[in-house]
Amino acid sequence: MTWLLDQPLTWLVATLLAYRAGCWLRDRTGRHPLAQPVLVAVAVLAAAILATGADLDVFTDGTAAVSFLLGPATVALAVPLHRQLHRLRGYVLPLLGSLVVGALVSITTAYGLVVLLGGSEELGRTMAPKATTAAVSIPLSESLGGIASLTAALTILAGILGAVAGPTVLTWLRVRDPRARGLAVGAASHGIGTARVLGEDEVAGAFSGLSMGLTALLTSLLLPLLAQLL
Length: 230
Hints:
Radius of gyration: 18 Å
Distance between the termini: 52 Å
Number of domains: 2
Order of helices and strands: HHHHHHHHHHHH
Shape: globular
Oligomer: single chain
C-alpha cells in the first residue's frame, strides 16, 4: 500500500475518478448547487490524503498534467464566446464599465475587510487578488508580498462558493439576462464558476469566460496601483 501511495500515477487516477464521481453526483441530484464536481473532488481527495498520510509532493507531481491542461482549457473558453460575438453589439461599453467597477470592488472589499477585522498588511495583500483565476492571483500575490499558497487556497474557495451560490443568488436578485449572469459569475468565481454556468446556458458561459479573462487583466493592472494607495 505504501508503494502504491508513493506513485504519482495513483494520485492522477484518483483525481480523475474523484472528479468523475462529482459529475455523477451532480447528474444524479439534478444539478444540485452543492453537487459541484470540483467541490466533491476536493472533499474526496482531501479526505484520502488525510486518511493515508500521503506525501503532498507526490500528489503534486501526479496531478501536474491536470494543472498543465488548465491553460489550454481556459483558452478553449474562447470557442463559445466566438459563437456569441453577435450578442456583444451595443454591450461593450457597459460590459467594460461593469468589470472595472467589479474589479475595484473585489480588491478594495477583500483588503478592507482584512484591515477592519484586525488582519495584517500581508494578509490583506494575500486576499486582494482572490477573484482572479489562480494563474494570475498567485503571481500577483507573490509580487505584492502576499502569501502565495494561501492566495491559491482562497482563489479556489472563491471559485467554489461562486459556483455553488452565484446562480442562485442572481436568481433571487431577479437577474435574468444570461449575459449579465455570466459576467457576474465570471468576475467573482473565474473558471470554476464559468464551468458551472456553461453547463446551464451557453450564452452565460461565453460571457462568463470573457468576464474571467478581462477581470484577470484588469486586476493585474489595477491591483499594483491600489496597493500603493492602500
